[in-house]
Write a structure and sequence with these properties.
Order of helices and strands: EHEHEEEEHHEHHHEHH
Distance between the termini: 14 Å
Shape: globular
CATH architecture of one domain: 3-Layer(aba) Sandwich
Largest sheet: 5 strands, parallel
CATH topology of one domain: Rossmann fold
Strand content: 5-15%
Strand order of the largest sheet: 2-1-3-7-8
Helix content: 40-55%
CATH class of one domain: Alpha Beta
Radius of gyration: 18 Å
Number of strands: 8
Structural class: alpha/beta
Length: 249
């Protein structure tokens, strides 16, 4: 069984026919796929779902994560739901909105350095869950956020100290030293993570994004989802040939 999670680029598509890439991928492999992706989803929500999946005793052979923007975050809500906080605030189960929370978040909570730290911390935790608890591979894709690719380059191949110091008002603050140590830790883990840092789906879908009159404006068209499914299958074959053979056998 394959497990998928992400945001609106991976969720079940609108309408009666599900043309999303997880559904297309399911037709290309000989196993079922659990897809818990949700519109406006955050990486913190994905991590929380993985915890629940493990606690439920579900057995899976591969985890595929379509990472979303680090600017989003989730807070718990009633009946297992959550508030998605980012450019908008939407309860992803009951579809309520609260602009007051959004304004509070923008003014008092969001900080790029801290939220990028949380982004890598979530990847680290998901990797640990996958490899040590589910005992299966986990692969991370950048779905549509090209800005995070620039950050990947600066954190993993550039000057971490400069990147952090450029984003804080007081470079002598004790938190700067902590951030440097933490980002160095994540850099040391990159070789273990199946994180495709220069692999945005948006890059190979320039003509396959729905327009205003499409079924899902601003998101992959049916052909775009097909291309993503084929792309993911190719990456599985490259990185996990044994699992690929099992999926295709």
């Amino acid at each position: 069984m394959i497990y998928v999670n992400g945001d609106s680029w991976s969720q079940r598509s609108n309408g009666e026919i599900d043309y999303s890439w997880p559904k297309i991928l399911e037709t290309k492999v000989n196993c079922s796929i659990i897809n818990q992706s949700a519109g406006c989803g955050s990486n913190s929500r994905v991590l929380g779902n993985l915890y629940k999946l493990y606690q439920s005793g579900t057995k899976i052979s591969l985890i595929i994560i379509g990472l979303t923007s680090f600017q989003r975050f989730h807070l718990p809500s009633k009946l297992g739901s959550s508030w998605s906080i980012g450019p908008t605030v939407i309860n992803d189960r009951f579809n309520n909105k609260n602009d007051e929370v959004l304004h509070w978040y923008q003014k008092n909570v969001f900080d790029e350095t801290e939220f990028v730290y949380q982004f890598y911390n979530q990847i680290w935790q998901m990797h640990e869950l996958g490899t040590k608890y589910f005992q299966c591979p986990i692969i991370f894709f950048n779905a549509w956020d090209s800005y995070i690719s620039e950050i990947h380059q600066q954190i993993f191949y550039g000057n971490i100290n400069k990147w952090i110091e450029d984003r804080v008002e007081d470079t002598a603050d004790y938190s700067v030293i902590e951030y440097i140590k933490m980002f160095e830790f994540f850099k040391s883990k990159l070789s273990e993570w199946n994180l495709l840092i220069n692999n945005n789906w948006h890059d190979f879908l320039p003509t396959h994004i729905d327009g205003p009159a499409g079924m899902h404006p601003g998101h992959p068209s049916p052909e775009g989802h097909r291309l993503i499914a084929e792309h993911i299958l190719t990456k599985i074959q490259e990185q996990f040939p044994i699992i690929y053979q099992e999926l295709k056998g």
